[in-house]
């Protein structure tokens, strides 16, 4: 299948998964993960109706930013503090806030640019040592510490669950994320506006949607197998 067929297939599957649980498919953002993809392929996806792209690495956003117009970029990978300044005015959202030190840097750089940066807190839901993110038990304390930062907007949470062939295990991780998401909505703060639950990739996005995701991050399903 070509890219147009891939995109149509993904959109159709998003719609079916949403309707299965009584949700409106329009409430779900399809974020195209364009890491390692060429500018030409990203432009092709844009011209086929994809408007929001996610990159794992700062340098990839910088390499593509000037060549792909009329799209929005999200930073979805681990972000080092010393690279925040390079992308702070180029991305619409950062999905991978995982430390107070990073929050401090994002806030500082956003203040200098006179912007407020929406951020998602990355949750390490499977407590894997190989993955970034805070543990769910730390979330309440973490949010309290973020309340003083006026130039970040705490907009939700993101996760990448442990890899498994067992859909029930994956579903349970997503269910737990939805519980955390609903709990966060109860927390008040000037820089808190909980809207987004970012979870689900090409292999599990339908389960994620059934469990409440409203941002799904699709790479292979759109672009085909990754180019290295």
Describe this structure in words.
The mean pLDDT is 97. By secondary structure, the chain is α/β, with parallel strands linked by helices. Strands 7-6-5-4-3-2-1-8 form an eight-stranded parallel β-sheet. It has one domain: TIM Barrel (Alpha-Beta Barrel), CATH 3.20.20.10. It is built from nine helices and eight strands. Helices cover 39% and strands 19% of the residues. The protein is globular, with a radius of gyration of 17 Å.
List keywords for this structure.
228 residues; TIM Barrel; eight-stranded parallel beta sheet; 9 helices
Query: How many helix segments?
Result: 9
Strand content: 15-25%
What is the number of E strands? 8
- Poorly predicted sequence stretches spanning 5 or more consecutive residues: none
**CATH top level?**
Alpha Beta
Helix and strand arrangement:
Elements: H1 3-20, E1 29-33, H2 39-47, E2 52-55, H3 58-65, E3 72-75, H4 84-87, E4 93-97, H5 100-113, E5 117-123, H6 139-146, E6 152-159, H7 167-184, E7 192-198, H8 205-210, E8 215-218, H9 220-223
Parallel strand pairs: 1-2, 1-8, 2-3, 3-4, 4-5, 5-6, 6-7
């Amino acid at each position: 299948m070509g890219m147009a067929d891939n995109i149509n297939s993904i959109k159709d599957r998003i719609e079916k998964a949403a309707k299965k649980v009584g949700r409106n498919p329009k409430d779900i953002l399809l974020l195209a993960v364009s890491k390692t993809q060429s500018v030409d392929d990203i432009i092709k996806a844009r011209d086929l109706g994809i408007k929001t792209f996610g990159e794992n690495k700062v340098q990839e956003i910088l390499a593509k930013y000037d060549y792909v117009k009329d799209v929005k970029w999200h930073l979805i990978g681990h972000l080092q503090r010393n690279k925040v300044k390079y992308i702070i005015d180029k991305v619409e959202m950062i999905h991978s806030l995982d430390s107070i030190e990073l929050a401090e840097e994002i806030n500082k750089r956003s203040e200098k640019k006179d912007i407020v940066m929406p951020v998602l807190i990355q949750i390490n839901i499977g407590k894997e040592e190989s993955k970034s993110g805070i543990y769910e038990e730390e979330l309440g304390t973490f949010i309290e510490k973020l309340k003083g930062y006026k130039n970040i907007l705490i907009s939700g949470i993101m996760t990448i669950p442990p890899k498994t062939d067992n859909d029930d295990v994956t579903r349970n991780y997503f269910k737990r994320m939805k519980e955390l998401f609903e709990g966060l909505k109860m927390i008040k703060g000037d820089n808190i506006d909980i809207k987004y639950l970012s979870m689900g990739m090409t292999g599990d996005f339908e389960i994620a949607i059934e469990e409440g995701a409203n941002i799904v991050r699709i790479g292979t399903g759109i672009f085909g197998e990754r180019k290295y």
